[in-house]
Amino acid sequence: MTHVHGRIWRDGKTADDFEFSAISEYLATEGTLLWCDIYDPDHATLKSLAEEIGLNEWAVEDAIADAERTKAVVYKTHTFFTVYDVWVKDPAPEDNSESTLEIHRISGFVLPRGLITVRISPHVDMEKVSRRYDDLGGQEHGVGSLVHALLDVVVDGHFAAVQSLDDGIESLEDDLFAERPLRGRLQRRTFQLRKDLVALRRVVLPMREVVTALQHRRLDARNAVELDAVYADLYDHVLRASEWTESLRDMVTTVFETNLSLQDARLNIVMKKLTGWAAIIAVPTAITGFYGQNVDYPGIDTVGGFVTSTSIIVVLVIVLYWTFKARDWL
């Protein structure tokens, strides 16, 4: 079932008479700004709207497709873009290996006097976009400011997601060098963080091209200088998120490789200690085995023979233990 929410501004002032059937009239009226948000659209409704206001048919198909990459495509009468909003959710306390990210797609059609957003997921806070737009007084700057408010909220979500993954990697580093690290859980968390980072990287890195295309292809020319400044700031935030994501990729790879190196080092230490103790145990085994021969030898069946063999065992074991300990073999 298609859900539609819309807002209208006339001469910079909010109007309350939005009607979905009158979208083409709003877009044709001078001094009017339209924002129409369509959630869970059926193909027939969106296709009818596209024919009414002249949207590209391939862009319409991309807006409701199951999977699309982050992108912006410029057409003659409008610009189509697809971005992803990222939410950070709290992991279950008993399972730290669960993903902490939720990724939701938002598609948009930017027209000279309006923005039409299409989304499949209900878990996108479009009211936050509306509040951000109102707080900035965006009615004075046209549709370019409305698009900026949407992208600004999306990029803020990217920053929150990158910060969450950064905290997760720092937690991994603490567990990695713990006295008794839980190897199984550590490996599961590392693998999940790598998966989340790959998914986040796919939606963050292409945002640079999206912001550039929307900034340079604004169909409204009002307050161009002010919008250039805010878009430049937005582009800087996108670059920072992209660079941060790339650095986390190196960090999680380092954690993974360090974990393998520590496991090899601990295995070598264990083998070294086992070998040292085996050498120490071999001494009394050899002595008792020698005196266990079925031949007569000095001290057989005497207390002196028992004391002598026992003393030899104790002295040699102490010497070997001290030698191995001094060389850090135990």
TrEMBL record:
<dbReference type="InterPro" id="IPR045863">
    <property type="entry name" value="CorA_TM1_TM2"/>
</dbReference>
<keyword id="KW-0813">Transport</keyword>
<keyword id="KW-1133">Transmembrane helix</keyword>
<keyword id="KW-1003">Cell membrane</keyword>
<dbReference type="InterPro" id="IPR002523">
    <property type="entry name" value="MgTranspt_CorA/ZnTranspt_ZntB"/>
</dbReference>
<dbReference type="GO" id="GO:0015095">
    <property type="term" value="F:magnesium ion transmembrane transporter activity"/>
</dbReference>
<dbReference type="Pfam" id="PF01544">
    <property type="entry name" value="CorA"/>
</dbReference>
<dbReference type="GO" id="GO:0000287">
    <property type="term" value="F:magnesium ion binding"/>
</dbReference>
<dbReference type="GO" id="GO:0050897">
    <property type="term" value="F:cobalt ion binding"/>
</dbReference>
<feature type="transmembrane region" description="Helical">
    <location>
        <begin position="274"/>
        <end position="291"/>
    </location>
</feature>
<dbReference type="InterPro" id="IPR045861">
    <property type="entry name" value="CorA_cytoplasmic_dom"/>
</dbReference>
<dbReference type="GO" id="GO:0005886">
    <property type="term" value="C:plasma membrane"/>
</dbReference>
<keyword id="KW-0472">Membrane</keyword>
<comment type="similarity">
    <text>Belongs to the CorA metal ion transporter (MIT) (TC 1.A.35) family.</text>
</comment>
<keyword id="KW-0812">Transmembrane</keyword>
<feature type="transmembrane region" description="Helical">
    <location>
        <begin position="303"/>
        <end position="324"/>
    </location>
</feature>
<protein>
    <submittedName>
        <fullName>Mg2+/Co2+ transporter</fullName>
    </submittedName>
</protein>
<dbReference type="GO" id="GO:0015087">
    <property type="term" value="F:cobalt ion transmembrane transporter activity"/>
</dbReference>
